UniProtKB/TrEMBL annotation:
CDD domains cross-referenced by the UniProt entry: DHDPS-like
SMART domains: DHDPS
Protein's organism: Algoriphagus sanaruensis
Molecular function GO labels: 4-hydroxy-tetrahydrodipicolinate synthase activity
Domain of life: Bacteria
The keyword 4Fe-4S is annotated on this UniProt entry: no
Stated family: Belongs to the DapA family.
Keyword annotations of the record: Lyase
InterPro entries reported for this sequence: Aldolase_TIM, DapA-like
Protein name: 4-hydroxy-tetrahydrodipicolinate synthase
Amino acid sequence: MNWKGVFPAVTTKFHADGILDMDLFFKNLDFQLESGVHGIILGGTLGESSVLSQEEKITLTGETVKYINGRVPVILNIAEGATQDALFWAKKAEELGASGLMILPPMRYAADAREVVTYFKTVANSTKLPMMIYNNPVDYKTLVTIDMFGELAACENIQAIKESTRDISNVTRMINRFGDRFQILCGVDTLAMEELLMGAVGWVAGLVCAFPKETVAVYNLVQEGKIEEAREIYRWFLPLLELDIHPKLVQYIKLAEQHCGIGSEHVRAPRLTLIGEERERIEKIITEGLAKRPKL
């Protein structure tokens, strides 16, 4: 498994009546692939996984694997409250042909360090798929500490970390402790270039759903050492990237996709589409970004 590169956490597309819109989903996937992304992540927060049925998740995963057809890895996110449910999805991901897993600590229960490590190890030992630990204590209230990663290093298929602690120096701490044992991917759009410069090898991205070419350009330029060129794009990008760090990131990013012609704003309840002053404010950020969009 190659964890290097840009991995969009793609949104799930719906028709106005709430039914899955696979045609629009594939249209967005085509744009991602044409723009040079390095993998696809399904079932994350942006994918509205919490409001999808088991059957819909299976359909979405299976159809995506078939459509991608090996061109890039397809990663399934696991965000479950029960270990047995996480084990179910690890097994189902293998059956459906996914390339790897991204996994959060147990949801809805504030597990302690021993419980979190046991949870991750239990899932890792149940599958051959490579895994990425999603470390996001800001949104999900559980910090996976460096010492916990020290215990998880015993599982060879735990290979990568989605670094979303909001602490850039954590990249350096991890590298100082573990070298290249874990591949570090930035999981916060507004810190991506900074973490790439400090040694992260990838970017699990959100605004890439609407702006894949610019996201890939920043990543590639950093890898090529063209820092000033990357910084110029990143400075333009930042007001848009800040849409990723709000509780309504799903609505904000879907509205951006709609403005870019590669998605729709349809969300599934309890989420609602934006109205009033909030909608005007977010649309202003998007339209100003589009008006000043850099030529790559």
